[in-house]
Fold these 4 entries.
Entry 1:
Amino acid sequence: MPDITLTIDGVAVTVPQGTGLVEAAREAGIEIPVFCHHPKLVPVGMCRMCLVEIGTPKIDPATKQPVLDENGKPVIAMQPNLQVACTNPVSNGMVVKTNTAEVEFARKGVLEFLLTSHPLDCPVCIKGGECPLQNLTMGYGPSVSRFDYDDKVHFEKPIPLGPLIDLDRERCILCSRCVRFEDEIAGDSVLGFANRGRAWMIQSKSNPPFNSKFSGNTVDICPVGALMNGEFRYAGRVWEIKPVPTVCPHCPVGCNMTLDMRYRDIKRVQPRSNEWVNEIWLCDRGRWGFHFVTSDKRLTKPLVRRGGELVETTWQEALEDIAQRLHGVVQNFGGNAVGGLAGGRLANEDLYLFQKLFRELLQSPNIDSRNGTLDEPEHDDLAYAFGLASGTDLGQLGKGTTVLVVGADPEEEAPVHLLRLRGIKRRGGELIVANGRPTKLDASATRTVRYQYGHEAHFVLGLLSAVLEGGSENKEFVRSRTKNLDALRTALRPFGVAAVAEQIGVAADVFQAVAQSVAGAENLVIVYGREAFAAGTPLLQALGNLALITGHVGRPGNGVLPIMRYNNSRGALDMGVRPGKGPGYTNVVKEGLTAQQMVQAAGNGKLQALYIAGLDPVAANPASRAALEKVGLLIVQDLFLTPTAQIADYVLPASSFAERDGTYTNAERRVQRFRAARNNLGDSRPDWQIFAGLGRALAAMVRQPALDTVAASAGKPTGKRPAPAQPVATARTWLYRSTDDINAEIVQQVAIYKGASYAQLKSSHGTWGRQAADDPVFYDGTSYTNTEGFGVQWPTLAEQTNVVFDLVFSQPTTPQPRNGELLLVAAPRLYDGGTLMQNAEGLSFWVAQPYVGVAKADAERLGIASGDRLRLSSAQGNVELYAKVDGLVGPGTLLVPDLAEIPLGQVQTGVLTPVRVEKVEG
Amino acid sequence: MLKTEELQINIGPQHPSTHGVFRLMATVDGETVVHLEPVFGYLHRNHEQLGEIWTYLQTITITDRLDYFNSMINEHGYCMTVEKLASIEVPERAEYIRVIMSELSRILNHAAAIGFWLQDMGSWGTTLMFGFRQREMIMDIFESVGGSRMMCNYMRFGGVARDLTPNLVEQINLFLEGFPQFIDDFERLMMENEILLARSRNVGVLPKELAAAYSVTGPVIRGSGIPYDIRRAEPYSIYDRFAFDIPVGSVGDVYDRFLVRMEEMRQSHRILRQAMEQLPQASGSYINQAYKAASKQQGLRLPAGEAYCRVESPKGELGYYIVSNGGNSAYRYGIRAPSLINLTALNDMCRGYTVADIVVILGSIDIVMGEVDR
Amino acid sequence: MFDLIKGLRTTAKYLFTKPVTISYPEVKRPVRERFRGKHELKRYADGKERCIGCSLCAAACPADAIYVEPAENNPQNPVGYGERYAAKYEINMIRCIYCGYCEDACPTNAIVLEHQYELSFYDRKAAVFTKEILLQPVDKGWGEPPPILQNLNRPPNPPAQMEL
């Protein structure tokens, strides 16, 4: 876009076309006070605070040239009245005056007017101290009001606008920032205005009230104390709060946020500005879901099972005993008899040490980051190769970008991605949503595709066919960077557009149109989520092929974005907590057991010791309890006494994210640092410290011969005394003093993390947002200075231009429900009522009641009405739920929200479980 | 000739005559001091760092705790620096009140300092209490005007916290009337005392050149014969309006410093008399009202820049240096503490004298550890 | 020798003057009006607390001696005027430097440094004065609440709606 040069208060400034005057002035270091204007929202000019004098060069009507004065300078025609700066875009040669007497008089007037209905209760207002109205009144306002205090309107206050937000109508200045945020950014049109004149007010239009997953952001952008964080209202004043930078532990978006500490208590969570990740937004779960940290159910002491009871012990004793026993198992049964599960909730540093502990010290290849349930998807390797190329900023993509969302429900799985994807659409990009059921993103989509569950892969294969049939593949890219296209063409023959269209009930022209949009787009982002993972490798492979043949990999703005289960599931894979692949997706010698196989091996006695950190297999699948009980040595490391921990031999209390340092890697592969805000609870320790302590104890025990025998049994029998395959661990190598040490080792050892040293994670420059505390006020109180940097996105394989990819075809399978059986689909829920939502009272309102969604056609056929109690049974077991007949799923499918309360593991036999449905009385 | 050996002895840090927690590492040869090394820092409170964290207004309260005998003068210097940086005008009346408080503070300090010094020399109790009685009367005045006897926290940017009421003026006048009697008595009591003369004359001599080279200030440099006084060298506030003399010594010994202090009390009294006379005619309020109102609304944010201001504290030249980056607390904040600088000359003053003289010489410098260590 | 006698004469003269010392604690020296001693949390004449729990005193405090934990007033039985009051109000008397800035900062004149100066404790915990210690007795309140606070408690008067 051409740049525009204009003069503001005598300062010449050059900005891109389309920039608002307020932003242009900010570039020039001049502050234009605003209330209703927000850089993320469309300006409306409601508050009249930004009035300035604007003049444009006088144009001679005859010549269409600017009129010049005697000095050769263009004559400026000032507009007769003051103009609002926010809605006026810049134009060449424009002259703006923001500091004239007239402007100052107008500002005084506006402020005096705004304050006529404002209660001026700053000392008791929770916004006091970070309030734009307060600041601007101090800066620009009149010191006295001519308005009689007794004449002020007095409303009943505060009234709850939703379960989490309170509204004080007296303080509201009706800037409509909240309404516009919900409409424009969040896409939940739940707020609106009511009445007129003095009685004009904000109200919630939805039932239940303020039904949005982003309601907390309205509090941040509210320029007064009208919208209040209900929990924070009496928690202290903002200047007493010390924000500690951290990263949200709830979902893989990895929103940057701060834990606002008052002494030792977390008082609230605020977003931290990071244009690459969450801009300035947070979802409500991230904002109010921190209470599990202070739960009184947290473990505070290491526990050991003595005489059938878990009793308290000391760390030294516990670690030494565990080391001793693990060492014994390894000596007697070999490393293969030891298994380890460490979940994606742990930080990268923990996970690295975990795999190092197993691979190096215990000589065990059996590690995984999954729960071992039957519906567990394959590990995602797609993002390693074709992930969103480093340098991608979803917040910048727009026109020319196509986003293909397959089998994902961003609102429930990764809420802030919803905002970012909506943003791409808003800026002119295409948003294609394909799913087996309606999701919220449908409303924002340019095109929705509804396939039947079980046919996800068919849909994408159809797309592939459409691209290839139409000849719209990126031929140059296909030639230089891929191989085996012909084999793919052959394999795709049964999946021609016409055939697939008929099979899955999607019109053929939909395939053509989507294929055209995908292939023709400048940028392509493929988003897939938990439901896509459930469809398994065929779908992922097909998506990868789609990105490859259209050449949409390895360039900023292109690639796949998998939304995984936990916040650091990506980090777990990066760190090699999985069988078969080491840190950085390197191949390891020994293929180990997967989580499922480990549970099985435990059941048939092959696994002698199992170490579970941050995972809960028993809760995920109650059937695995029996298997795990057979394990000779079960060690569980967690925040809570989970069902798995209850059957463990040792329970080690771990620190929560608020009590420790570390890094998480988000879905976009951005490594981000978080910091400790509180002291460890009781005797709990950060996970890495526990692993390191165990490592030290083990390293002291593992003598050379022991390692040799293990290595010999693993290696080829050469007759000679074999050299140890791995470097012999010494106590020295397990001396990690802080996460910095581990990070240094990761940077050294893991190729893809080469650029992710703590120093590099800290870099923060070049993006728009509040960078310094004294930056002109735009979003006061909204976002804190980002002192922790923006993190580092590690480069994908596709970014290395010499890598050639194989176009592999993987045959899709479809679950075949027998007669009368329906397919059980678990729909992810943001408010799942799980362990991380403990104590979050505000959020508990939003946790859905357990139910099973039945399609109308099925309901009629089976004679089911809403409220009937249904028993769903499979080969695995059964579960009873109340039916809710809705149109959310197609016939033949049952939709069950993935709530902690529903023991879905009891029935699931695989990723999509065919279940029998019968009505029960009750 | 006896063969002697040098011996190192520690005086302090817990010693009654070291005026606080202060340690002297004395190398002695028999009774004679060969070398003396002052060791301090026991009372370090991060004063300057605190001043960079606290707001400007809050920092006034810790300047009280620098030289805790002279909270008024400390505040005066600090407020002047901030006023210089922020170009805040101080009304005439406020200046008069400040000068009155400063000079009262000087008398207070000298009365106590001489008392302590005499006590160090062995005049147990009597002389100290003599000085303390005057000090008590002044502290009573401070309590009346500022609300606290020692940590007055009375001065504000643009003036002082509260006005002098007629009652208070009367109280000060009453004190001034009685003061000459005290100083005469004190002189009669001590000035020509045989013991005092024996112990202080030609003891701890600091020659003129050395004094200047050490950049010592206050009664120490004036005792050495250099008439250097900020009030005259670089008149601040309204000191150019008053007639007063600057007493100087001739030898530069301990006795000279004692005499200078005695005379300075008289001169302060002289200034006070003039100030009290002129006070009713002084224009303006006790504080810059316009600024007070503005700062209530805007808070105090100093423009970016730096300023240095110095005042004549009873110990010497007290300087404040503030660098502002536009915020509400100093970016850099430093103090030139007279006690500390005067202390640097201690080694040269003591060398060659006996161990018993150390205490007398130290007492004559008049240090306050709160200011030395900060 | 004569010098000594000269000095002694002065001493002798003072032997016959009245001593200026006060035998504390039997005799207590009255403090001056502006004296800054122990804090007191004041009440209005009607017995309601003046403190609105705004924490401005804590913000002004250079020594970080004040801790305020606000809470919501129960409208049926309010502790003070307005929606907020101090559920916890603690001053650490060891930290306090008696500068009086809290007094200056208080928007409702709730906290005042009074004339009590005998502040000694047997342990550090006792030096943290709680609200109960600081609060004035109910019958010792003074003054009417300012109109801005009185207005908070009047019934809502939303503007009349035009029937459309």
Entry 2:
Amino acid sequence: MGGVGAPAETARRWQTVIGLEVHVELATRSKMFCRCSTAFGAPPNTQVCPVCLALPGSLPVPNRRAIELALRAALALRCEIDPDCRWDRKNYHYPDLPKGYQITQYARPLGRGGELTFAGAGGASRTVRIRRLHMEEDTGKSTHEGMPGGATGVDLNRAGVPLIEIVSEPDLRGPEDARLYLQALRLLLLYAGVSDVRMEEGSLRCDANVSLRPAGSSELGALVEIKNMNSFRSVQRALEYEEGRQAAALDAGERIARETRHWDERRGITFPSRSKEEAHDYRYFPEPDLGAVGLAPAFIEDTRRSLPELPADRQARYEALGLPGYDAGVLVADPALAAYFDRMLRAGAAAREGAALLSVELLGRLNAAGIGVDSPECRVHPEQLAALQGLIASGSISGKIAKDVLDEMLATGSDPSVVVQRKGLQQISDQGAIGEAARAAIAANPQSVADYRAGKKQAADFLVGQVMKATRGKANPGLVREAIARELG
Amino acid sequence: MPIDEAQVRHVARLARLAVPDSDLARFAAELGAILEHVARLQELDVRDVPPTAAALGRPGVARDDEPSAGLTASEALAGAPASAAGMFQVPRVVEG
Amino acid sequence: MDVAPYEWPAHQVRRALAAGQVSARKVAESALRRIDEVEPAVGAFLHLRAREDVLADADAVDAAIARGATLPPLAGVPAAIKANMCMRGVPASCASRVLEGFVPPYDATAVGRLRAAGAVILGATNMDEFAMGSSTEHSADHVTRNPWDLGRVPGGSSGGAAAAVAAGEATIALGSDTGGSIRQPAAFCGTVGLKPTYGRVSRYGLVAFASSLDQIGPLTRDVRDGALVLAAIAGADPADATCAAEPSPDYEAALRRDCRGLRAGLPVELLGGGTAPEVRSSVMAAADLLAELGAEVDECSLPTVPYALDAYYVIAPAEASSNLARYDGVRYGRRAAGAADYVEMFGRTRGEGFGPEVRRRIMLGTYALSAGYYDQYYGRALQVRTRICQDFEAALARFDVLVGPTTPSPAFAFGEKTADPLQMYASDVCTVAVNLAGLPALSLPCGFHNGLPLGLQVIGRAWDEETVLRVAFAFEQAADLTRRRPPLLGAGRMGG
Ligand SMILES: [Mg+2]
Ligand SMILES: [Zn+2]
């Protein structure tokens, strides 16, 4: 960081203001305006047709599912929906933009005025307002790999893939906030079933507008747009760099140029973008090849009703069940894990203990083996893990034995009761048997008894341990402790 | 003249049309004459008149999300002035 | 004396085939012979399909007849297609250098339907580049001559299609009409030309000029053929979101020989000062004839229509500037050689590939949409468009059809209007308003002046092509003008 003043001092002088523009690929099987597949990773130009190649005479026809998914996203973000939203053309020339324009929504976006609440930096609840959410189509991809003589190659497989663009108000106050917002947005869209949101495959992309202003001021400084941030980490890093760069410049009395800058992940810097020298004039106008999107009120309501429980609601529900906020957050952050946990709850597991069994014991083992809870290789079903928790709760097995049972369940896929029976791991809770074992331990360890009588109360622990050892850990430790105490008088 | 040579140059750049300097004056004159003619549109009072981008719009048209095969890569590239490695080839584009 | 099959209208071809009086091969051969004779003088085509391919299509029709199959409505009818509609394997250059070498890998919906209706396609016809023009002089390839007077233009932009039908080279043709590009050349060449309601015919595969105005329609020898061709190509298409779901009626059944009970309005604005006296008197006589046929004819007013040309010359170029952005030399067509980077490559490909009129309209449209000018030009033109739509709505609430001239004057001479774009634009003055409102309209011959045909325009309500066809048919039968043929006997007689 090239800051002149100390960061803390700088932070007092300048306030960082950040707004994010996020593009998300929708989880459809076919493209926005044609029937080509959206599958990722196909050989170049094998998922193309007259429409997405922009052959003369071809026309777009919207994908109903894409509209529905965009609507889900807009509803999940609590946007106001425009049932008469329309399509516009955004005109610019670029080799990977086949029509010479992008079909998008400009004057009448699908959603406006939404919000997203999430745990910001330091855990404080933050609410970011969503300015607009609109539908559009993706461009193709340019590469230099494999091309002769430094030429550029254009692959149009991605051209026309359905996107939503989510534009936040400049409500974010720091790089960490920005990253946390983005992660919360990703999770929301994942829950809403809108997108796979894989940043590494480019299905979630983010540009940021950053400006600094004197602390206490309400005016916005000169806006700098940052592009090419390809991971959550790089979003935070790029914004931290940019924050420092602008603060240093302002501290030195310089003016910040309104410009677009490119993040260089390897060098860890932003630099002015060369392709954006000329001011853009996109000449938006209504797309004459398409009528209004035309969302029937019943369709909007059905879609709203079909939205699943979203992350914030699920977090609240888990906390109401007694889970600590952090533990609930761990579960909510992974939809597959949360779904697994919900099945455990439905099978009767106790919330706190079940959550611990899941996120400590099962997840620890699965992570070590590189297996996901929702993968078929995970042979322990939520109902089985709930049953295991039930065996512990009823005292049928101890927590320690439960770990061995879980190992066996993972290896064989058997129910916990079957494992317990087969291996004879049933906890011994029979008063008579435990009393007998306690008396045997006392008889075999006169020195411990003497110590105990001499006031060394911890000698009882040794005797309890001897009983547990003799019963190969199966005796109910609480009952053993009681029996020893009773026998020692 | 509603449009001068500098504006012609700007518009040509937006439209990605190479216009030789020697043609700028003629373009300015021709476009100027047309723009002067269509300036008649200003005579009409259109306050509170909504725009009509399409006379007989058809809202709500959409299709199912069913993929189908389009063209093969060789069909797609058949008419391309230049291609290599299964891609459309263009002079180098500098990113960033 | 027998008339050769190339002279027959489509419905006569169908009748003769059904009666076994002729074979589809004979009809096709007749058309091909006629093309050999007159094409060097007329120049209607940009691309002719190989003779053996045309004859093979005709043979397929004959084979179907031999099998006893039901004859499709346009079986064996020789057809020409304007070069801005895609046909798999046939170059669709739009008469532009920028599309040099482009061969579509797919069929336009309308072309596919015409084929399915049995038509035998001869080739692609000449036009103004990207349909921008009113004389076909803006073709990058060659000019097309008006069969009635080879020193005059056939009109445009569907000039090749109109000339081919008028000269007997094709029985029917498909054209496209954005501001009058079917009706105006139909009027100049003495044929019938029908622009359907916007959305009646799929635009899929029609190379876009101005998407909110473009519509494919027939150019034919007579009104009945217009009805037949429209029936073949009309109807919903899942590939065109602006194509209506409205069912297409049996247009041939709508044809009647009278106008009883119909009200026809005569908009005074269409007969304004710029109208040639011979056009005016011919249209007035046509109105009298309609009255004789039972129509109630009265004057009416479309007060905003005098501004239609101005609105059109903002809206159409604006849409065109965007529609033509795809011609960048990346995926198909022509590319300028030796450019250092893509910006230069795009600029030179487009600068060298587009002709002057196309460049002019791209510039105009780009300007009208650009920052700071949108409201003044494009935005305002859309508001004026609303007023024009309202004018038509009001008039068509009173009248079943509106009638007037198709063009302010008969066909003009080559070079007469190329020097001044505004003069050329003015030849669309009677037709553009109809496109702005999306209405159906038909042009048919209503008289001759110095051997040149004059066109009567019949405008109908949206989706009511039936009434338009009915009025046109009744007039045609009574006026008996469509049987007149240009004095064009063969290449030997052509003086130029
Ligand atoms: Mg966008
Ligand atoms: Zn496609």
Entry 3:
Amino acid sequence: MIRDLVIVGSGPAGYTAAIYASRAQLNPVQYEGSVTAGGALMTTTEVENFPGFVDGVMGPVLMEDMRKQAARFGTELITDDVVEMDLKGDVKTIKDGSGNVVQARAVILATGSAYKHIGLANEDRLSGRGVSWCATCDGFFFRDQTIAVVGGGDSAVEEATFLTKFASKVVLIHRRDSLRASKIMADRALNNPKIEMLWNTEVVDILGAEKVSGLALKNTVTGELSERDFTGLFVAIGHIPRSELLIGQIDLDNEGYVKVDGRSTRTNLSGVFACGDLVDHTYRQAITAAGSGCQAALDAEKFLAH
Amino acid sequence: MATSKVTAANFDEVVLKSSTPVLVDFWAEWCGPCRAIGPILEDISNEYGDKLKIVKLNTDEESSIAIKYGVTSIPMLNVYVNGEVVKTIIGAKPKPALLKELEAFI
């Protein structure tokens, strides 16, 4: 059987695409991902800026509700990973981690992004041994300790603020002299007595034999090197698009984001649409991802009607 | 067989003195990636439970054990053979990747 539509990915973009596509009776199959279902919001805490939620909403709750809404209109949800895609030609073939194959006339790609690593040799070695990318998962284990967060955007500031619930002190390390984060979140961090800012500073090495014991730091203005003791390092320096399965078959830009045609979600391949963080360098919000997921469903619906 | 719960009270008996290898899943209710791999570990336990016993340790309720084994990141999966940690897997991974990491035990 050849389906109308497969949706790959399940953050706000994927679920919104599924809600629209299933309401339009396209009977979509959605691959949610075996351990990534729900996407980046699954490891956040409170989302305060998603319109309609006056008092905020927990990220995982918002995603669970979007999922239910997609299921309500008949989206077939599969909690597995896509491991192979052949997107050229009129019939697209998608293979999952259990070896099942689905064919469809149209595909919506909404695989989002993954955490960026600093790129230090000791980062992987000490990962899970003091180096973490998930404050909500791991903050608890750093009770009454002095820890570092590296980054200057919304996620770094959110993580630093969240971590003050556990840590005795959180040092936010940023390579510039001001934060990129939204003003309300930046002010919250700057006014938090448990957060110390370390401006114009880069992490050049992570120290520790069995677990993190400190960081080697470099001042980006003076070039001065120093070392400081920490028991944990939370990395929040941004994201990279999860486009590794697409390399060689779809047009990507030089940072790996899927290229789309103008304001649409059309890729260079007929019948293949992309949305959410996979295409977005700029905005990267839950609401913009949801909006582009809606666009992708409408673009796919129009394509399938021809 | 299904996974079972382990506590500080029976950790010695269930894990350290077990005659078969035991995988301990260090997890917590509030950890999204822990919840994501829960069903995968149930599957693996149902398929391979006779060779590799899978038990779950709640790090909120049993923090003394979590501290003893140096847990700083969850989900963390430790495999114990004859009371020693012989393998540590950190972070949520898809089922095929977990099976590959555990192939020596199943």
Entry 4:
Amino acid sequence: MARRLSLFAVALAIVAFAVYWWLTMPSTVAAGTLPAHTPDLANGKTVFNAAGCASCHAVPNQQDRTRLGGGLPLTSPFGTFYAPNISPDPNDGIGQWTEAQFVKAVVHGVSPDGAHYFPAFPYTSYHGAKIADVRDLFAYIKTLPPVSGKAPDHAVGFPFNIRRNIGIWKLLFMDRQPPVMDAARSPQWNRGAYLVNVLGHCAECHSPRNMLGGIITAQRFAGGPNPEGKGWVPNITQKNLADWSDKDLAYFLESGLLPDGDSAGGSMASVIKNTSQLSADDRAAMAVYLKSLPAVEGPKRPQSK
Amino acid sequence: MKRVFVTVTAILLGIGGVSAQQDILSQRQTAMKENGRNLGGVLGAMAKGEKPYDQAAIDAALAKLADNAKAMSGHFPDSTKGLKAEGKYSASPKIWDSRADFESHIASYSKAISEVKASVKDIDTLKAAVPVLGKQCSGCHETYRLQNS
């Protein structure tokens, strides 16, 4: 009897592990599934700026936004992540990657060797990117200078350091974006929705997160405690920005200046370095979309003394 | 008796020291808010088309910004390192840890103001100039300004 029970337990464990393995299996993109594509480098540069690649991947403490050697630490409640080298260096960067591997990394958060990336890399937002945009981005990054040197390993504690578990996290929290195409809205609104939700990944910081680090969907864009530590990320729904005109928003994205003359600081200063490179049309589209966000009450900010 | 005298004097001096530092913090904030009014309320408002173009007002605003830039370094004496200010923001201790870099930001800001002074002649040159100044503000606030939480 005992023997039969223990056999049963072993079988159950094997099945449970198989289910876990299946649930956490990284998705792949086969090279053959990508249709022919002539890269548009100008669009690749726009995608690069809209997606804010340089904010994390450019070498810290220097001015050149195209040196993508990585190394910037990103602190979080789960540990410290270090942005990797995504320059075209063949040894330390992504110089040997195929286009399909790059698409898989950006859109599915899976590395060339089939491991899940930590969602500190905002592939949850990039998941909705147009494949042509990602391919243009790849072509653009390939034109940038190779930078040698690897970033430090992520300093993340158990159990968050088990990458396979991120497969479960993805099942819970990926694909939770609002639809970014709405035929009833203007092309400008649709472009803005795409830039804000997908490439700009604004919700990644401007939304509160639950204990597992997933965005609380009902309070998307309603601000919350700064995931990087001190301070508070503002609510960018109309609850907080009703006083801002479209023009104020577009101007802020261009100049970093708030309507009252205050200026962007902290991580937002780095975001403005990206948005100031976009076209005036793209900034106007982002403003139109942001103005359309219904007022949502965010988490309550503790009163400071 | 002597001990009481010494204690009381020490306390009074201590309070005097603290309030002198609080004065420095509030002067710093007044200067920053004045910069904000000149940038957002005058230059930015005109660049956005909310106010009519007015060269005299622009010149006055830029002169005020230049004056405040000259006084900027003095608003951050060593005695105020680590002090939390009232309101939304405080100065990061990094200012004093990397003072040379902080001073180079002030120098680059002052240079930008004089360049803008020379370049702004009409609405188009103003439109080009304000984001240049905005970038200077953010360039320092990115690293050296902390939110109070």
